[in-house]
Each structure stands twice: as C-alpha cells, then as structure tokens.
Amino acid sequence: MTTKPVAIFRHSPGEGAGYFATFLDAHRLPHVLIPIDAGASVPRDVDDFSGLCFMGGPMSVNDDLPWLAPSFALIRFAVARGVPVIGHCLGGQMMAKALGGSVSRNAVKELGWGRVEVTSPLAADWLGDIAAFDAFHWHGETFSLPPGATRLLKSAYCENQAFALGPHLAMQCHVEMTEAMIRDWNHVWAAEKAAPGPSVQTPEEMYPGMEARINAMRQVADRLYRRWIAGLKAE
C-alpha cells in the first residue's frame, strides 16, 4: 500500500500505541514513534508520513505546553493535505481543538469499561453493522464537534465519544488498550480522585472478564483501524 510510515505521537510514557501498533504490524505497515514526552520535536510537515496518530496523556489540550501549538498546526496541515489523522482520547481532543472545536470538562469522569453506542448511519462506513460495544474509558474532559464533523459514538456519560471528518477519526474512548496498559494505568487510579459510581470503576471492577472484554473491543478496533488505513497516503 505505502512505504511511508505512520507517525505515532506519544505524550506520556504509559500511553503508547498499544494495539494500534500491533494492528499496523499485522498489516505490514511501517510506523515510527515520536516520543513528545521524551523531548522529541513535532515535525513541521507531513511529507514523510502516510498518516498521523496521536495517543493519549494526562494533560489537557488547554494547558500551556510548548508542543501543543505545533501539534495543532500539524493536524491542520495534514487535513489540508488529505493525510489521515487518528486520535485516541487526548489525541482526539487535540484533533477537535485543532479543527475548530473546543475541549472542556465533562460532567463526570469516565474510568473503566462502559458502553458506547452508534449515533449516525454514517458510522456504518467505519463500524459496519456494529451498533454498540464496550469500550475502555479514562478521561475527565470532552470535545465538541469541529465544523463538518460527524458524531459517530456516544456514551451515557459523554455525548461525544467519536467523530469522523472525511478520512480522519477522533475518539474519546480507548480502543487501543492492552491488559498491561490497563494494569499500569491503575497504579495511578487514586490520583484521579474520582469516587466510584456509575461512570467510574475501581481497578477491582475492571479486571473480571478483562481478556474477553479486550478481545471483543479489538474486533471493533480492527474495523475502525481497517477503515482508517484505507486512506493512508501512498508514495
């Protein structure tokens, strides 16, 4: 398909590419990690990449961080050039803000497993006949839809769980999770200072049946990622 790599932007050591990298490897698609958390610079253009992927992180897109403005500019440049962009959680929020939406505090935090539902017939282009699935969540903020975007998913506690804009996909939920990532994030669960409740699971509530839950979510991730790589820019 293409020999140009997908650029994967990591913003926090514990929030790497997860299953997204596994998927690319399975499809023999090259990728390169750009560790922003380790001081890597944001590229100024997209000529060397077939697509851009922005991962999560504990920071806010509204923080005064030196790499956010160039990241927003790169996202806008990629969209203008037709280079596909995909975002997971913070990455989805970055896409929303870069493209004219906003990011603000969600009514409640979402931590752990939770149901998301399809909100538009256009979601069939990304998800086929899937109408709902259990996704993994870890966020306290949410994005609005940028101009021209179509909302694809919602949950009971977050109205905007995903949007598509042409070949670009932004997600609030985490479909890239592995068991190791979930266990690692739960080491800092207490730092979230979130009271357990309908939208917040304790680590002990996340673990039962986790392998089956991850496997089911990967079927969804496969569909989303397969649709996304169809737009990758060839040489």
UniProtKB/TrEMBL annotation:
GO terms for cellular component: cytosol. Keywords: Glutamine amidotransferase, Transferase. This is Glutamine amidotransferase. It comes from the Bacteria. GO terms for molecular function: transferase activity. InterPro entries: ChyE-like, Class_I_gatase-like, GATASE. It holds the Pfam family GATase. It comes from Denitratisoma oestradiolicum.
